[in-house]
Amino acid sequence: MLGEAVPAAFGAALYPPGLLFVAFLLVSPQPRRRALIFIAGAVIASLGVGFALVFILQGTGVERGPHRTVPAWVDLALGIVLLGSALYVWFRPPRGPKAAKERRELGLLGLLAIGLLMYSPSPLYLASLHAIAKAHESVLLTILSVLLVAAIYMLVIEIPVIAHAIWPEQTIRVVTAVNTWLGRYGRTIVVIAAGAFGIYLIISASVHLIEGPPPT
Questions:
Q1: Which residue among 78, 109, 125, 175 has its CA within the 20 to 30 Å range from the CA of 192?
Q2: N- to C-terminal Cα distance for the chain?
Q3: CA 106, 110, 116 angle in degrees (round to 5)?
Q4: Name one Pfam family in it (predicted).
Q5: Distances in whole angstroms, Cα of residue 131 to Cα of each of 63, 134, 137, 161, 189
Q6: What is each CA distance from 209 to 54, 74, 75, 77, 146, in whole angstroms?
């Protein structure tokens, strides 16, 4: 389960816009308060969709046993989405940053909404949740797994806020440097991760569909 879920979550965590927005918040008035509101929106989106998707895929009845699996066509559909996303990200023109003036006008509800929108599940995060759903572990282990992959998914906004509370000036310098690096290589890493998982799911699903269901 986690062997597939965790790498996909780390791939999803490479999200330069999230780091860029947190970096902006940390140099604005009331930095930690505003950053925490933004993170709260991200947490609501990630965990809300995460728990809903996992238990829906499992039929909301994990007590039915570990032998029931998510249909292969779900693997195939998600693999196609991941591969399509990789191609889209690769050929999409780079987006320019929003004006700082517009960002400063955001209130707390606006920051919460941006967190919700920016951390609506990406294809790689969906792949991570899908891996958890396929495992059909106990309810407790499933919940802990969703919490783990959600925490990984939000690493680039969690770490700077925690570090800023301890080393504010050093954190700003490091975040700026990391954001520059992600601006150069983040797209390539995301494309490779999404493409690799997409191809893996497509091949795996195709094999299961060709072989047909196991004999009962």
A1: 175
A2: 24
A3: 140
A4: SfLAP
A5: 18, 5, 11, 29, 21
A6: 22, 11, 10, 12, 28
